[in-house]
Design goal:
single chain; alpha+beta; Mlu1-box Binding Protein, DNA-binding Domain; 4-stranded antiparallel beta sheet; two-stranded antiparallel sheet; about 40% helix; elongated
Length: about 290
């Protein structure tokens, strides 16, 4: 655990994120003796001047939990922002009172540049980290090359704060056979059906099954044996590389099969309806037998 640091007579617990020393808005308000919310408001008013990744970092609620920063932000914080040294200096630039000068000096010299337990680690090279994770992902039995690439990109983001796949514009990868797999919505447009209807048809055809209780990163559907020649599971990175979502896509060839299935199914329904009508006309309501009069 990092030792506390004294700034202007106040004890401060240093916050380190991926090898960098950072500071929260609440810490700035407290040390500069400003009303709660002052630092946050000033940041929002001048956010266009701050560079994401250089002057500040944004964290989702899940990242706050995984980085063990729950004591830095209030409970149930949906998105947290932490400032680097450059971001802090930009934010407090308008602070010109005597206290501000003293606090700035101590934060820069003692907090951000502290040695010993709080010594900042040198950030690892992104290409080295990516290659290491890609090699690890490739160790899995029957590892898919495309998914290894995407998985390594996600892991590199967690380690270095940057996803090289997204930087290169690679948010999804085509299958090795170069089949232009499509989503159910795209398949539906080819045959005049909605994506929901396509999913129902694929289930009825025993090509896929709906997965109950799927996680936010997993697909809601899973291929069955009959669907494997036509379907493929893709890992697609989310915005700013924060996690990925599995998407089940299908070969365009599946569209004609779905159409034939729907046509046959519709014909069977019409035939069944016709038989019911025919039976109904053949069996009218029978009259009750008349009772004999004595």
């Amino acid at each position: 655990m990092t030792k506390e640091i004294t700034i202007n007579g106040k004890s401060v617990s240093p916050v380190d994120l991926k090898g960098r020393r950072v500071v929260s808005f609440a810490m700035i308000d407290d040390l500069h003796q400003r009303p709660e919310g002052t630092a946050s408001r000033n940041f929002r008013s001048n956010k266009k001047h701050f560079s994401l990744g250089e002057d500040y970092v944004e964290l989702t609620a899940d990242e706050i939990r995984r980085q063990s920063l729950t004591d830095v932000f209030p409970p149930r914080t949906p998105k947290g922002i932490l400032l680097t040294e450059s971001g802090y200096l930009m934010l407090v630039k308008p602070f010109t009172d005597d206290l501000a000068w003293n606090v700035q000096r101590e934060l820069v010299n003692v907090y951000f540049r502290a040695k010993g337990d709080a010594k900042r680690k040198r950030a690892p090279a992104i290409d080295t980290v990516f290659a290491r994770y890609h090699r690890i992902a490739s160790l899995r039995p029957n590892a898919d090359p495309n998914q290894c690439w995407i998985a390594a990109g996600r892991a590199t983001y967690e380690k270095c704060g940057e996803n090289p796949c997204e930087t290169l514009g690679i948010t999804s990868m085509e299958a090795p056979d170069q089949t232009n797999h499509k989503t159910v919505t795209e398949i539906g447009k080819m045959i005049g059906m909605s994506g929901q209807a396509v999913n129902k048809a694929l289930i009825a055809m025993s090509y896929q099954v709906k997965v109950e209780g799927a996680s936010s990163t997993s697909s809601n559907y899973e291929m069955l044996e009959r669907g494997k020649p036509y379907g493929r599971m893709y890992d697609e990175t989310r915005k700013r590389g924060k996690g990925a979502q599995q998407v089940l896509k299908w070969s365009p060839d599946i569209a004609e099969q779905i159409k034939r299935y729907m046509d046959v199914n519709k014909a069977a329904e019409l035939a069944l309806a016709g038989k019911l009508v025919e039976q109904d006309t053949r069996a009218p309501f029978a009259k009750k037998p008349e009772t004999a009069t004595v």
